[in-house]
Fold:
Amino acid sequence: MAFDHSKFLIRFVEEAREHCARISEGLLNLEKTPGDAEMLNALFRSAHTIKGSSRMMKLAGVTELAHKMEDVLDAVRGGKISLAASVSDSLFRGVDALSEMLERIVAGDKSPEAPEALCAELANAVTISAVEDVPVQSDSSDSSDTPGQSDKQVATTPAEPAPPQHPATRGRQVDYLRINAAKLDELIRLMGEIVSEHGRLRRHIGRLREIERSTARHLKAVAEQFATGDGVHEMLRDAGAALQLSLRKSVRDMSDASLMQDHLVADLQETSLRMRMQPLSTVFDPLRRTVRDLAHENGKDIDFVVNGGDTELDRKIIDRLGDSLMHMIRNALDHGVENSAERVAAGKNPKGTISLSAFYDSGSVTISLSDDGRGLSVDRLRDKALARRLFDADVLAGMTRTEITDLIFMPGFSTSPIITDLSGRGVGMDVVRKSIVDELKGTIVIETMEGCGTTFLLRLPLNLAVFPLFLISANGRICALPATSLVEMLLVQHNEIIEIVNKRAIRLREQIIPVENLAALLRLTQESTVESREALIVIIRDGEEKLGLVVDEIIGREEMVVKPLPVHLQNLRMVSGVTIGVRNSIINVLHVPELFVQAREISEPGRRAPAVKEDRVQRVLVVDDSINTREIEKSILEAYGYNVITAEDGEDAYGKTRGSQFDLVITDVEMPRLDGFSLTERLRGDERYRNIPIIIVTSREKDEDKKRGILVGASAYIVKGAFDQSNLIDTVRSLIG
Structure:
């Protein structure tokens, strides 16, 4: 009977992926500790295992590439060559090629070929580096495991790398079972429903207990009324007492059963959620390679420090976290960390540092991403917002430092000095906020100091299956607040609520905290009730800000399943989801960041309102010595509702700006009489055009040309080779709307 390779193909691919990840991780570690002989031996064994297993699976291309990598690693660990940067880069490319081949195998390609050029590069690395590099001493105690001997072992027994084991499990067999993720998700969903339903059961028992107490009081009153009655009355009293005793026993039995179920449901919840928990290292570790490659591309020397990778989170959260961390790391590399020359001039270490860490924090997980770069300039952010007419000058002047730094989360907002075809359009941080705050129910806090660096703190729930909620009441309406957003609850006298300008606040431990009625924030009709002397206040937080909410009652804390809003209601910013309460009533889960927005609007109406843009057609000046280019750009802009005037060169354009005010200028560079750079520089010297956006559209794509565009004050730089209609319109809209 023929051997059916297909049955083992998926297992081979999964194990080969694990080995590729180990090789990539090991190479990154070796860049810091190049003399780690144990690590070199481990990388050699991983490459050797891929080679042997792929040979059994008849995957000649994978075998060939893995063999070449094995030869290089064997030469390094044997001291024949050193792990120079060029050798390390070749091995990284080998890992990338192996990963790509594995994906092709999964897609159905049964025999992907190894890249010839890469195989030749790896083969040359063994010989060329041996001549050019100085050999390093390496422990080759594992050299007895020669390729020839190991091949015989693999031919008889397939190599299967054991999953990493916790120290406590070493020395005994651990069984693993692969489960379809969708089945696990369904199990977690059902567990969440059970937890939520059990909470409703407890509330039902509480009501029964109240009924039992009420019945006891009623029967006692009846017994006193008929204390001297005849035999019929005595029979009624005895029957009532027996009924009340039976009801009390039933309620007690149900309470005892509920307590037992509390323990069982809690264990079920913890065990089920633990099954879907994964260490953050699954998303942290791949970023090390990404940072290395991006740093090389940007010409920056970066030390990437990772801690807390063993901190665990729900897989659903981890799956959505990678893109957000990638955006933030790109920003740190592009706009945060300076190049070596700038850092030395600023008195810093020429090597920049980006740190990524995670830790548990009061029932949540906090992820910290920090860099020691330029930091965020509040003045520069304010000027950017003013130049883009996002807010009026007096509004910006009244904003706090936190509000100014939070402007980077606005769609289209960028701290880049210039928009190019690659970056600067402000796409990224608004996506990060939407993902972390809106989708994952977390918070983001920015800590920055100009010249010293920036830290982003992401606070996330442990899972998305069930949420700890506090049920509260405002004007008779029950709603819920995430427990992770609550700081504390307190009862204060009304005379302790002070008036500060047009705000109400309380003084709590030397801190002034603004206070608002939750009913007012929710626009609930105020009911005419007798005002008590005391106010029940719930303190919530959003990042570093705190807000006190005056509520009628705190009903309790519950673990509940939160359902997302239907599509047609997802524009309701005040509500982040709904849950099911008593008698299948719908309880709104409030969106905490929006409560802060509403509180600011109530205390200072219109303060955060964007600058009012005039209801008129915006005028654009297009400057190019090519009539064809001028007409193409004009037709595109007019199709989107802009009023376009053209000029044939820089002098013609400058003359037209003397007698007319434009909202935007688009100019070429190579023009007679006055080129685009000189035109931009001249316009920036004019007070009327100092903050007017200027876009340079040119065929010059060298970095020095883009740098000159930055120096003369251009707002955007578009290379004609990357020019298309959407590119131009997106840039124009990001600058003037």
Summary: The chain has 22 helices and 23 strands.
